Amino acid sequence: MLLRNNIKIKASSLLSLLLLMITPSHVTAIEVSLSSSKTYFNYQEFSREGDLLDKESGWLNNIGVSIKEGFKNKYLVAGSFSYLFGTANYDGHLQNGNAHSTETAEDVFSYAASYSYQLTQEYSAGLSFSQNIWQRNILAKGSALGLYEEYQWKNVSLYQQFIYRELTIALLTGVLPDGRLDIDLAESGLGEVKIPLKEGFEAQLKVTAQPPYLVDWNGQVYLGFIYREFPRSAPVNVGRFSFSEPKSQLMQLSIGLSIEWGN
Length: 263
What we know:
- Helix content is 3%, strand content 69%.
- The chain is mainly beta and 263 residues long.
- The chain has one domain (11-262): Lipocalin, CATH 2.40.128.
- The strands form 2 sheets. Strands 1-2-3-4-5-6-7-10-11-14 form a 10-stranded antiparallel beta barrel.
- The N and C termini lie far apart (44 Å).
């Protein structure tokens, strides 16, 4: 059953194993952070020949919360939740080949956990794990029906953090296993179609700074960039129809503010 408005991911399953590694006597710092950003969302799908099939783009809203625990002065575990939402412009084509423009309601949920070790004063490295859901609702317009799709995938990444002067630079590069696309085709009489996704790739870059006017608030500003790619999926046959997910690329640029509390 498609999740729609019933998100059932449990963040505790991602965090519990990491938090069990920490004993209270070794915890040296705990920080809670709230963040908010504006994110430019640019998603594209391509044909086998490399031609652009459709594009979704626009400014979305992003809110997040994270908890970090440092222990033994070298290790850091963190858990986070983020929610990206809003409406993007959709430009694509109908089944008959005619150009079609509408809007897409975007809801992207991400739960993540990471573990890192400080190798030097300026460099830390570790692993990051996340579970992600993207609810993509291409809205009906005119005589064209809407289309609801739901993507799910995991992210396993190498995490690196660099300190350069007043900047903190975080870099994540990893693979996207266990992906799946659920398509709601009830209005077409085909019910729900499930398409396994091939393993994708993702890279994230985040640059954080603390301007003088935010020191008293323990606030920071940041610039983030995400690149994500999935290859074309294998076809899935449903009756006399065959469905596959085309190759896709996503680029996101975020400008945001975060505030931290902790000891």
